[in-house]
Structures are given as structure tokens and as C-alpha cells.
Design goal:
Blueprint lengths: L5 E6 L3 H12 L3 E7 L3 H11 L4 E2 L2 H7 L4 E4 L6 H11 L3 E4 L7 H14 L2 E3 L8 H11 L8 E5 L2 E3 L4 H12 L3 E9 L1 H5 L4 E11 L4 E5 L8 E4 L3 E5 L5 E6 L5 E4 L12 H16 L11 H19 L5 E2 L13 H5 L10 H4 L5
Parallel strand pairs: 1-2, 1-4, 2-3, 4-5, 5-6, 7-11
Antiparallel strand pairs: 7-12, 8-10, 9-10, 9-16, 10-11, 12-13, 13-14, 14-15
Helix pairs in contact: 3-4, 4-5, 5-10, 6-7, 7-10
């Protein structure tokens, strides 16, 4: 690992942006040098909190003054595309974006293509597939420690299939080492299905995977809420935390939980946000040829969006099987207002005390 320190620009100084800033200041390999934040009072207190003097209202203003090595864009979904394209035009080495990456498939395609054409590492944001334990479980599955994968299922793919549901798809793809090639879905309630937003939409059906498996998707209440992947004698269960591992059965015939023996994260306070950023920084140093090593890539976020769009439209079209990749890139699915517009515009603004880190 080189000792090079990467300069960082942060676009978006809201609640999650402040968590990014905290970690970048904790990480010895990075220096946070500039922040863009539209809210003037928040911009001032966040700058003071993190000791950053280069403060700007917009991404374009920031890039006109300074071109950092890497930039993290932590904005509501509506504003991500413009900030990504501004970062590409500025010539940064790496860009990361928080989730969800967008709403219209064509808009996300444009961002991905622009970064690829410019040779810029394009990373995804704060997702549980980057969690140290999830990554370790996936490596063990790929190495064949538990035998061949013979099944998988998704629990409670609903509520917001583009926002929070992007986690299910990203973890499923990682643990199975497979892509989703077809979606068949039913959706409820009807008013949520007919909306252009994912809020309140619950999906059941199945995903067909590139490894030949058919993965049931449950919207109804089950004891679990994540992703199960199993072999002949083992089960790996991600349920919004470090995956549980079961191997064999006990005297009653029930699965037996084993000590997973995970190695701890370097920065446990920051959980998967920390490992997401660490992966981004390491790959940005080495260049776009190493983009496949990202724990979370922009492509991961695009594929999560694409599956959500396919699920909604399969349900709208009477549970019609929908093949991936989708050919109609004008299709879209908007996340709930807080994710799309941010707290200031959706009725949950952040106080200045919280932004300053003094709200206890």
C-alpha cells in the first residue's frame, strides 16, 4: 500500500455527509480539503466542525476553485447526476455516490459511461455488502468452504425497493456470485404499485440467477428480513448485520448456528460506511483498472435500481417475466421523498446543533 495521501472533496454536508466527513478525517490516507453544501448556515457550522475553510454552495463552485483527488457525493438522489458530471468535467481520479444512485436508468447509464470514458473510478456508497463480515462470508462461499450453493431467497423485499431494497439485491449478488437475469413479481398495495415512487411497495415473486438458481422473493412477514443463501449442509443468513452461519443440524433436527469467526473491522465504529470508503480510497489510488475490486461500485447501485424497476414493471404487467438487462432505459422508479429530495425539502430538516455535532 502506497503512503500517498488523497485529497477529498465532499459534495453534500447533511446528516450522512457529516458521517463521511468524520471518517475521512479519521482515515490517515485522506485529507478532507473542501465541502460543498447548499444550506448556508449548515455550510458554515459543518466547515467549522471539520476544520475545512474551502466551503462552497455548489459542486461547480468547488471544482472551479479546487480539484481534489477524489470526491464523495452525498446528496439527495435528484441532484447526484449533475454533481457526478461536474466531477467528471473537473478531472478527479475517483467519485463515490451514496444510495440510491438515481431514478431513471438512462441517467445512471450516462454517469457510468462518463466515468468510464474519462478513466475515473466510480464507486457506490454506504451499503451493507461492504460490511467486513459480509465480504468475508462471500469469500468463504466463493472458495467453496460450505460446498456448492444450491439455493437462495430474499425476505421482505418491500417498503422501498429502490431505497432500502437496493441492499437486498446487492448482498444477494455478492453472496451467490451471480447476476439476476429475470424478474417475475407481484406488487401490493395497488396504490403503491401505481405510483412512480417505491414508498410502501411490497414485492413478492422470484429472481432467476445466472448460475441457474431460482430465488424466491417474499413480501409477506417472515421471521427474517434479509437474504438467505444455502448449500447442502450450511446456511448463510444476512439479516441486516453480520451474516449468521449455520452448519449441520442439532439433535432436534434444527439448523445449528456456528461461530462464524469473522475478523474484526479496522474501524468498527463506522461499520460498513468505513469499509465502503476504505475500499474506494484503495481502488482510487490504484486506478480504474482495479474498479472490479470495489466493495461497492456504481454498477452495483445501478443493478439494484434495475432490478427494482424490473420488479415494479413485472407486477404492473401482470407478473410478466422481465429479462435483464432492461432494453428500455427510460424506465424509472423514484425513491421516497427523503431519499430523493433530502430532509430540508421533505419535512425533516437537520438542526444546526446536530450539524455542528453539539446535539447530545
Amino acid at each position: 500500500m502506497t503512503s500517498e495521501i488523497l485529497t477529498v472533496g465532499l459534495i453534500g454536508g447533511g446528516r450522512m455527509g457529516q458521517e463521511y466527513a468524520r471518517f475521512y478525517q479519521e482515515l490517515p490516507e485522506t485529507e478532507l480539503v473542501a465541502i460543498a453544501e447548499i444550506h448556508p448556515e449548515r455550510r458554515k457550522v459543518v466547515g467549522a466542525r471539520f476544520g475545512v475553510e474551502a466551503l462552497f454552495a455548489e459542486a461547480t463552485d468547488l471544482f472551479a476553485a479546487v480539484v481534489p483527488d477524489i470526491v464523495s457525493i452525498v446528496l439527495p438522489g435528484k441532484y447526484i447526476r449533475a454533481a457526478v458530471l461536474a466531477a467528471v468535467a473537473a478531472g478527479v481520479r475517483g467519485i463515490s455516490v451514496d444510495k440510491p444512485i438515481g431514478a431513471v436508468l438512462a441517467d445512471v447509464d450516462e454517469m457510468v459511461a462518463a466515468c468510464a470514458a474519462a478513466g475515473i473510478v466510480f464507486a457506490g456508497g454506504n451499503m451493507q455488502r461492504a460490511m467486513t463480515e459480509v465480504q468475508q462470508a462471500a469469500r468463504r462461499l466463493r472458495a467453496g468452504e460450505f460446498g456448492p450453493i444450491i439455493g437462495a431467497c430474499v425476505h421482505r423485499y418491500g417498503g422501498e425497493i429502490s431505497g432500502g431494497g437496493c441492499q437486498h439485491v446487492a448482498v444477494l449478488r455478492l453472496l451467490t456470485g451471480a447476476e439476476i437475469t429475470e424478474v417475475v413479481a407481484a406488487g401490493a398495495p395497488e396504490e403503491a404499485l401505481r405510483s412512480n415512487c417505491d414508498e410502501g411497495l411490497n414485492i413478492s415473486g422470484q429472481f432467476r440467477l445466472s448460475n441457474g438458481l431460482v430465488c424466491p422473493v417474499f413480501a409477506a412477514e417472515t421471521p427474517y428480513s434479509g437474504v438467505d443463501v444455502w448449500t447442502a449442509d450450511a446456511l448463510v443468513r444476512w439479516d441486516w448485520g453480520p451474516p449468521q452461519i449455520f452448519r449441520g443440524v442439532d439433535a432436534s433436527g434444527a439448523r445449528r448456528a456456528i461461530d462464524a469467526g469473522y475478523e474484526p473491522a479496522e474501524y468498527p465504529e463506522f461499520s460498513y460506511l468505513g469499509t465502503t470508503i476504505q475500499s474506494f480510497v484503495q481502488v482510487a489510488r490504484r486506478g480504474v483498472d482495479c474498479e472490479g475490486e470495489l466493495f461497492v461500485s456504481a454498477r452495483d447501485q445501478l443493478l439494484s435500481l434495475e432490478v427494482a424497476v424490473a420488479a415494479k414493471h413485472s407486477a404492473l404487467w401482470g407478473s410478466l417475466p422481465v429479462a435483464l438487462p432492461l432494453t428500455d432505459r427510460s424506465l424509472c422508479l423514484y425513491p421516497r421523498a427523503y431519499r430523493w429530495l433530502g430532509g430540508d425539502q421533505s419535512g425533516v430538516p437537520q438542526t444546526l446543533e446536530e450539524a455542528a455535532g453539539t446535539n447530545t
